[in-house]
Design a protein that fits this description.
The chain is an all-alpha fold. It contains three helices and no strands. The longest helix has 25 residues, at about 1-25.
Length: about 60
C-alpha cells in the first residue's frame, strides 16, 4: 500500500513539473511591453534649468 501511494506522489510531482515547463515555454517571455512612446527619444530643445548641457559629465 505504501509503495502505491509513493508511486502516485512521484507521478503527480512529475506531472506538475511537466505542466509547469509547458506553461513556461508557451507563455510570452516579455516582462513588460515597450510601447512606441518609449521606443523613440524625447525631443529636447534646451537643457533643463541648472544644467549647462545634456552631456552625462555635466549631470554629475
Amino acid at each position: 500500500m505504501a509503495i502505491k501511494k509513493k508511486k502516485i506522489i512521484y507521478i503527480s510531482a512529475a506531472l506538475l513539473f511537466l505542466i509547469f515547463l509547458i506553461w513556461r515555454f508557451i507563455r510570452p517571455m516579455n516582462i513588460f511591453v515597450v510601447t512606441d512612446n518609449f521606443a523613440r527619444p524625447m525631443a529636447i530643445t534646451r537643457p533643463p534649468a541648472g544644467l549647462q548641457s545634456m552631456r552625462a559629465a555635466d549631470c554629475g
